[in-house]
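Hi L.,

You mentioned the student needs an example of a multi-chain input paired with its predicted structure. This one should do, with 276 residues in total across all chains.
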Amino acid sequence: MMPMISCKKASHLISEGMDRRLSVRESIGLKIHLLMCGACAQVLKQLKGLRRLLRAYHIHLQTKSISSPILSQTAKDKIKLVLISQKG
Amino acid sequence: MAYLSNPQQWVDSYADDLYAYALKMIPHPDQAENLIQETFLAALKSKDSFKGNSSEKTWLIGILRHKITDHLRSKYKEVPTSSLVPEDVGIDAFFDQINETLKKNPGSWDFQPDQLLNKEEFWRTFEKCLQHLPPKTAEAFSLSEMEQINSKEICKVLNVTPTNLWSLLHRARVQLRQCLQINWFEHE
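Structure written out for the whole complex:
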């Protein structure tokens, strides 16, 4: 029987499982750990939630306008000057 | 020919949105600002190729995305992979040294994505957390989770092996999770 993996090992596998396909052995080891460890199961849930949120935000950034200006007027004026000088 | 607004107006219309986008990828104001300027310049040069298949803003963001990956590619071109830090740096602090259990309870995150999307305060917190990561770690995370570029491509851009990339992403997730927990979710 495989020994139970540690939370640290589980943390690696939780993350890597989001980036690559885990081996059968890794996947079983992680599943068993998650069944026994509420804290790691919670971390997995949070990381998946964060991934979903960031994907939605990525679309949001491209389609919606932000509500308040964040780039300084000085920086904007500087860019405008550069653009004017390029236009010839 | 597709209609484009006067380039003079681009800055007023889109600079803030482009800047917000760039900051999520490169969380350093001066670098992000430079990338915006380069984006507008490139757009000016290629404005005749604007097809009108997308909105002006989408077109500009497309150019910005290329500028961001080009910027990273040239930044890491000369850096050999072997100079990477060992994989558990930045991770060990979160686990008990002896039995390798989590030191702190992760806490509960109860959020509706729709509500957080418009909360700019949350995204400023996120940016600050991203800023606290080592640059390459933050960049790997943004390319993967925001740009959703595949691992193979990210490895090329950042000049790392897949194993290196997985540990960069692992470190990013562990540290970002903790940072958001402390600076956002615990206060909610």
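You could point out the following to them. The first helix of chain A runs from residue 7 to 16. Residues 61 and 67 of chain A are 11 Å apart (CA to CA).

Best wishes,
N.
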